[in-house]
Design brief:
The protein has 177 residues and is mainly alpha-helical. The protein is 36% helix and 3% strand. The protein contains six helices and two strands; from the N terminus they run ααβααααβ. It has a two-stranded antiparallel sheet with strand order 1-2. Helix 3 (58-68) packs across helix 6 (129-142) and helix 5 (108-118) packs across helix 6.
């Protein structure tokens, strides 16, 4: 047998053996425990199931917005390089539509979920639950969906009626009640 054929067979055997070994034997990754998963299991449903304790108001959100959000989304949620989050209500049926929190998002709870997981862009997941409630309250107020004095928390946030709540068809069937 030539040296090149022997070398090829040796490499194939090593690759096959590597794939046959369990991941922990390959010294890749680590076992994930229930506690580890809890930090990632933070999904919030449209009905508000999973919302954490805490609360926030639009005025509290205004201060946080100026510090954490305005560089990307502009003062008052308009004009930043990452796009408007305020305005555009009723524009989706026109050619000049503007997809914002007020015009596009169907549920206030999924707004909370998104902000909590992905914002601010440079440090996702760094905001406290109170800060997220406050930012969401600020955005809802800027879009004239809630009043200045509304307090957003796990009880009140799912009750917010979004202007585009009927603009989507759910993929998930609704259980008969």
């Amino acid at each position: 047998m030539s040296t090149s054929k022997f070398g090829s067979k040796l490499i194939l055997a090593a690759v096959a053996l590597t794939f046959a070994m369990p991941l922990h034997a390959q010294n890749l990754g680590q076992v994930v425990g229930e506690g580890d998963l809890a930090n990632w299991d933070i999904s919030i449903g449209r009905d508000g199931v999973g919302l954490p304790t805490g609360s926030g108001t639009s005025s509290e959100g205004s201060a946080i917005w100026s510090e954490q959000c305005s560089a990307c989304h502009g003062e008052n949620g308009k004009g930043g390089p990452a796009g408007d989050l305020v305005g555009g209500i009723g524009s989706l049926t026109s050619l000049e539509h503007n997809k914002t929190v007020g015009s596009f998002w169907p549920y206030s709870t999924t707004l909370f979920d998104y902000v909590r997981r992905a914002m601010p862009y440079y440090a996702p997941g760094s905001l406290s639950d109170d800060e997220v409630y406050s930012i969401v309250a600020y955005l809802l107020n800027q879009n004239e969906i809630i009043t200045d004095d509304a307090i957003m928390d796990a009880e009140s946030l799912p009750q917010v009626e979004m202007p585009n709540a009927d603009g989507f068809i759910s993929y998930w069937p609704v259980a008969n009640q």
